[in-house]
Hints:
Elements: E1 2-9, H1 14-32, E2 35-39, E3 42-47, E4 50-56, E5 60-67, H2 69-72, H3 75-89
Antiparallel strand pairs: 1-5, 2-3, 3-4, 4-5
InterPro entries: PHA_gran_rgn
Protein name: Polyhydroxyalkanoic acid system protein
Amino acid sequence: MAKITVEREHALGREAARAKAEQLAERLAREFDVTYQWQGDTLLFKRSGADGSIAVSDDRVRVELKLGLLLSAMSGSIKREIEQVLDKSLVA
Protein backbone atom coordinates (compact mmCIF):
# COMPACT_ATOMS: atom_id res chain seq x y z
CA MET A 1 0.00 0.00 0.00
CA ALA A 2 1.36 3.41 -1.00
CA LYS A 3 0.62 6.69 0.74
CA ILE A 4 0.75 10.05 -1.04
CA THR A 5 0.78 13.41 0.72
CA VAL A 6 0.74 16.73 -1.14
CA GLU A 7 0.45 20.09 0.58
CA ARG A 8 0.09 23.51 -1.02
CA GLU A 9 -0.33 27.05 0.28
CA HIS A 10 -3.00 29.28 -1.23
CA ALA A 11 -4.36 32.81 -0.95
CA LEU A 12 -7.98 31.98 -1.78
CA GLY A 13 -9.39 31.88 1.72
CA ARG A 14 -11.10 28.91 3.31
CA GLU A 15 -14.48 29.14 1.53
CA ALA A 16 -13.02 29.50 -1.97
CA ALA A 17 -10.58 26.63 -1.31
CA ARG A 18 -13.49 24.48 -0.08
CA ALA A 19 -15.37 25.27 -3.29
CA LYS A 20 -12.35 24.18 -5.36
CA ALA A 21 -12.10 20.94 -3.35
CA GLU A 22 -15.82 20.33 -3.92
CA GLN A 23 -15.38 20.83 -7.68
CA LEU A 24 -12.49 18.37 -7.68
CA ALA A 25 -14.52 15.81 -5.71
CA GLU A 26 -17.43 16.14 -8.16
CA ARG A 27 -15.04 15.51 -11.06
CA LEU A 28 -13.53 12.48 -9.32
CA ALA A 29 -17.02 11.13 -8.62
CA ARG A 30 -17.97 11.43 -12.30
CA GLU A 31 -14.74 10.08 -13.77
CA PHE A 32 -13.62 7.48 -11.22
CA ASP A 33 -16.72 6.46 -9.24
CA VAL A 34 -15.45 8.18 -6.07
CA THR A 35 -17.79 8.75 -3.14
CA TYR A 36 -17.13 11.70 -0.86
CA GLN A 37 -18.43 13.62 2.12
CA TRP A 38 -17.41 16.65 4.14
CA GLN A 39 -16.41 16.27 7.78
CA GLY A 40 -15.85 19.83 8.99
CA ASP A 41 -13.22 21.35 6.69
CA THR A 42 -11.98 17.95 5.51
CA LEU A 43 -13.35 16.24 2.45
CA LEU A 44 -13.14 12.45 2.80
CA PHE A 45 -13.24 10.39 -0.38
CA LYS A 46 -13.15 6.72 -1.24
CA ARG A 47 -13.29 4.29 -4.13
CA SER A 48 -12.22 0.75 -4.70
CA GLY A 49 -8.46 0.61 -4.18
CA ALA A 50 -8.00 4.15 -2.84
CA ASP A 51 -9.17 6.44 -0.07
CA GLY A 52 -8.05 9.77 1.27
CA SER A 53 -8.82 13.28 2.35
CA ILE A 54 -8.46 16.91 1.35
CA ALA A 55 -8.02 19.14 4.40
CA VAL A 56 -8.72 22.83 3.75
CA SER A 57 -7.60 25.74 5.93
CA ASP A 58 -7.46 29.50 5.44
CA ASP A 59 -4.10 29.33 3.63
CA ARG A 60 -3.27 25.65 3.01
CA VAL A 61 -4.63 22.52 1.35
CA ARG A 62 -3.36 19.06 2.27
CA VAL A 63 -4.20 15.97 0.22
CA GLU A 64 -3.57 12.54 1.68
CA LEU A 65 -4.22 9.44 -0.38
CA LYS A 66 -3.79 5.76 0.44
CA LEU A 67 -3.54 3.45 -2.56
CA GLY A 68 -4.29 -0.25 -2.57
CA LEU A 69 -1.95 -2.81 -4.05
CA LEU A 70 -3.00 -2.43 -7.69
CA LEU A 71 -2.86 1.38 -7.74
CA SER A 72 0.40 1.51 -5.76
CA ALA A 73 2.35 0.80 -8.94
CA MET A 74 1.03 4.09 -10.35
CA SER A 75 1.73 6.19 -7.25
CA GLY A 76 4.33 8.39 -8.96
CA SER A 77 2.06 9.43 -11.79
CA ILE A 78 -0.92 9.84 -9.44
CA LYS A 79 1.13 12.14 -7.19
CA ARG A 80 2.24 14.24 -10.18
CA GLU A 81 -1.37 14.56 -11.33
CA ILE A 82 -2.47 15.70 -7.84
CA GLU A 83 0.33 18.28 -7.77
CA GLN A 84 -0.61 19.62 -11.21
CA VAL A 85 -4.31 19.86 -10.34
CA LEU A 86 -3.58 21.67 -7.07
CA ASP A 87 -1.12 24.06 -8.69
CA LYS A 88 -3.68 24.91 -11.37
CA SER A 89 -6.71 25.09 -9.06
CA LEU A 90 -5.26 27.12 -6.21
CA VAL A 91 -4.37 30.25 -8.14
CA ALA A 92 -6.44 33.30 -7.25
